[in-house]
């Protein structure tokens, strides 16, 4: 990494940082705005070009109004009317986009000078302190942005924000403008773009989102399959013409991974590609709809760049059902965005994005083209095949058709990266016929970079010969400090391979049922008070521990497990420990072992894994911690077959709290749920709603669920109110069948019928109506839900007895409230927010007037 002064800003030096990896990709960053100013990437023929728009000199960035490459905040994108309400107080912000605020205000983070310091060998960490009332925002905020240029050609960007004095709001994004042909090579309308989003958030004529969520299907905003950016850009739809192009936020498809694939951009002419991954819920697509005077005298015409801005949804602070950018006092939030570059002639439209996220789009011709490229120097084709092989359907096709002789040759010849990717692919295919070849390759491989991938592949395909070979294997010590990282990686890979080769480790049985423990219980978002009320009702001592967590103590574990409103139970091991592997191992090793040994039947070792939620090089940190813990023979790191999870949570001040979750402690609370539907409510959330219903209507004897799904809400109410009459209806036969099976398994009685709720007339009024209404972006569409909700609300007065109440779980909050308010016999008396898969549904409480 190189660092230099490029000028001054307000009398202070502005620094430039240059990063370069082994693949000849380089990135330039500057401390003004924590910006990306250049990204140099080879094309398919090795020709280097700058693929981001920029300015000639520092003066251009000082006067910048287009946010080229900038870190935007305190809140990126637009906030309607430059104001929001937090805890009942209205905050007026500095407007800079008509009546609205854009990217944090007139002098947002893009116009601030950050403090930049080297971050390891491959990155830069920028720091900024934002004071209370800056641009109108409440509370002090400490901000960190870490950039790392990795050898897989990924520009890793981590945003970390910590509230210091009071509750506040923060949402950052990187505002780089990409042109994969080169910053001065004309427009990007021929670039092919795909976005992993089934829905988008419409905006009004002032470009502020309205709060509605609409499907992209059948619209010019449908990028689920790759298409040229310019194909539909001039359509008269959703302000495309008024905006001069795309300036729209997409609701990224949710999955269980923290980092989801958001988009892929390709330039067919140069062969360059860009894969975007992020932990943020939204992606703003902006096609540089106005001209900019740029780098080397270039006159950037409209559409000469494209922004793919990962962020919280725009104006989300004013829209309750959007994921919230609010930070509580002393709370820290982290999000990651990765821009990964490729430069191959042979990349196909069915590359990584499609195979990972849309497995139904298998294109055998594209795979055949990659298979034909497998040879001595084909690391790019092998890398693509590795990505494809993550889907079983693709893996089977590749395994059946690949030239095994060529693949095995690639393990012994070619560049180290070719050998590494060949090992990765063999591991992904999982064919035991490759075992002998892998062992031979590992025996002769001298390059540190390759050996971990060979070990992991052996772990994936090996049998007894591999166990014998690896049990006697040793990792050669580092010759100098440059090899230390590779030694750690190989040591960890050897441990993982052995763990996977011997997966049938006998797990210990938990026997500490009669021991009194203090444990943390985590409730669904917003439901910690309900969990507290349930514990109080059960006469279990507890105290609120902040956030959605409760600390409780009971004479025995079964007493705690009778509570139904917590998601998970964890055991505290240590608090406020110095953030170093050595200090952590020393602080928790003995207590961790004692917890496992005293509460389990059987002798050591005890298998565990580590989950680290913090900053920095997580893999290195965990590897060093594991080495310290495993020096105690009673503990063994085994990520493939673990009995406990050691959870490290980094606090705002950098110190670490350590918790332990036991997987030997079987949770049978919801064992009745033998069948679930894709849109089924979480049983813990259903239990919380049932607990809330009991609090509001303790004597309710009759309950109706008009959209019962798999019956979870009714079953949880039946658990709270034994003997109550339970009636459910659903338009789906599959749902009714699932509900009947689950209810029988729960030992309850209920009556279920297949019926459209908009046509259902009750024979009597119910004391209680519970319902998980379809979400606008989960089931159906917003427009179809309008009809359903209208019929539902029209029938609700007839379903409720006098003084009866309804608890309605929905993400269509505004629509539901509007329709309820039109019913003179109904009155909204309460509202509870929670969280589900990154969205923020509401429980609306309604009473029969």
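^ Assign residues to that structure.
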């Amino acid at each position: 990494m190189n660092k230099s002064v490029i000028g001054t800003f307000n009398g202070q030096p502005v620094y430039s940082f240059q990063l370069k990896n082994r693949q000849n990709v380089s990135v330039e960053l500057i401390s003004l705005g924590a910006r990306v100013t250049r990204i140099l990437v080879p094309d398919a023929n090795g020709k280097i070009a700058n693929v981001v728009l920029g300015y000639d000199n520092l003066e251009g960035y000082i006067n910048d109004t287009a946010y080229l490459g900038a870190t935007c905040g305190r809140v990126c994108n637009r906030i309607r009317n430059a104001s929001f309400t937090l805890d009942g107080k209205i905050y007026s912000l500095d407007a800079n986009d008509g009546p609205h605020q854009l990217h944090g205000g007139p002098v947002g983070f893009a116009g601030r000078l950050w403090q930049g310091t080297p971050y390891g060998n491959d990155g830069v960490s920028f720091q900024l302190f934002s004071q209370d009332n800056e641009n109108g925002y409440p509370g002090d905020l400490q901000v960190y942005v870490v950039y790392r240029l990795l050898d897989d050609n990924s520009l890793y960007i981590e945003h970390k924000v910590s509230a210091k004095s009071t509750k506040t709001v923060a949402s950052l994004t990187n505002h780089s403008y990409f042109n994969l042909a080169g910053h001065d090579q004309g427009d990007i309308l021929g670039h092919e773009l795909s976005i992993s989003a089934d829905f988008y958030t419409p905006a009004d004529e002032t470009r502020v989102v309205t709060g509605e969520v609409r499907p992209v299907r059948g619209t010019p905003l449908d990028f689920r399959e790759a298409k040229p950016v310019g194909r539909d850009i001039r359509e008269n739809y959703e302000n495309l013409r008024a905006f001069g192009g795309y300036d729209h936020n997409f609701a990224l498809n949710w999955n269980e991974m923290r980092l989801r694939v958001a988009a892929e951009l390709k330039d067919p002419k140069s062969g360059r590609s860009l894969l975007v991954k992020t932990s943020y819920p939204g992606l703003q697509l902006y096609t540089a709809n106005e001209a900019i005077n740029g780098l080397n005298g270039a006159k950037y015409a409209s559409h000469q760049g494209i922004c793919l801005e990962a962020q919280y949804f725009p104006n989300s602070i004013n829209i309750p059902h959007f994921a919230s950018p609010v930070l509580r006092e002393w709370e820290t939030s982290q999000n990651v965005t990765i821009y990964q570059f490729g430069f191959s002639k042979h990349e196909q439209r069915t590359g990584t994005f499609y195979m990972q996220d849309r497995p139904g789009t298998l294109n055998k011709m594209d795979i055949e083209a990659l298979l034909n490229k497998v040879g001595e120097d084909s690391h790019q084709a092998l890398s693509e095949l590795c990505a494809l092989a993550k889907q079983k359907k693709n893996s089977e096709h590749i395994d059946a058709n690949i030239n095994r002789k060529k693949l095995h040759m690639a393990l012994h010849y070619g560049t180290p990266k070719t050998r590494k990717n060949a090992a990765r692919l063999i591991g992904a295919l999982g064919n035991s016929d490759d075992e002998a070849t892998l062992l031979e390759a590992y025996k002769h491989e001298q390059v540190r970079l390759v050996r971990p991938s060979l070990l992991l592949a052996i772990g994936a395909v090996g049998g007894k010969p591999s166990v014998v070979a690896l049990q006697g294997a040793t990792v050669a010590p580092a010759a100098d400090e440059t090899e230390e990282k590779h030694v750690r990686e190989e040591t960890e890979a050897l441990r993982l391979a052995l763990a996977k080769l011997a997966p049938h480790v006998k797990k210990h049985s938990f026997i500490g049922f009669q021991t009194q423990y203090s444990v943390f219980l985590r409730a669904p978002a917003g439901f910690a008070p309900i969990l507290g009320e349930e514990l109080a009702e059960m006469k279990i001592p507890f105290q609120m521990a902040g956030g959605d967590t409760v600390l409780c103590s009971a004479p025995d574990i079964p007493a705690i497990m009778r509570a139904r409103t917590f998601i998970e139970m964890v055991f505290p091991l240590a608090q406020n420990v110095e953030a170093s592997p050595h200090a952590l191992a020393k602080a928790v090793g003995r207590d961790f072992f004692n917890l496992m040994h005293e509460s389990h039947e059987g002798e050591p070792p005890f298998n565990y894994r580590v989950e680290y939620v913090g900053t920095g090089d997580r893999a290195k940190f965990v590897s060093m911690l594991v080495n310290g813990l495993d020096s105690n023979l009673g503990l063994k790191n085994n990520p493939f077959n673990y009995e406990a999870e050691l959870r490290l949570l980094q606090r705002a001040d950098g110190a670490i709290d350590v918790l332990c979750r036991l997987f030997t402690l079987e949770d049978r609370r919801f064992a009745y749920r033998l069948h679930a539907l894709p849109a089924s409510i979480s049983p813990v959330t259903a239990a919380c709603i049932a607990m809330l219903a009991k609090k509001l209507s303790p004597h309710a004897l009759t309950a109706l669920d008009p959209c019962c799904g798999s019956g979870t809400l009714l079953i949880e109410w039946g658990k709270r109110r034994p003997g109550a009459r339970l009636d459910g209806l659903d338009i789906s036969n599959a749902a009714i069948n699932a509900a009947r099976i689950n209810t029988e398994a729960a030992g309850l009685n209920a009556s279920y019928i297949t019926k459209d709720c908009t046509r259902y007339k009750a024979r009597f009024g119910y004391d209680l109506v519970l319902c998980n209404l379809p979400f606008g972006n989960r089931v159906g569409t917003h427009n179809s839900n309008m009809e359903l909700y209208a019929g539902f609300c029209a029938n609700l007065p007839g379903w409720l007895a006098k003084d009866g109440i309804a608890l309605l779980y929905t993400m269509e909050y505004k629509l539901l409230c509007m329709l309820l308010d039109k019913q003179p016999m109904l009155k909204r008396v309460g509202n509870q927010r929670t969280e589900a898969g990154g969205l923020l549904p509401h429980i609306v409480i309604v009473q029969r007037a």
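The chain has a mean pLDDT of 88.
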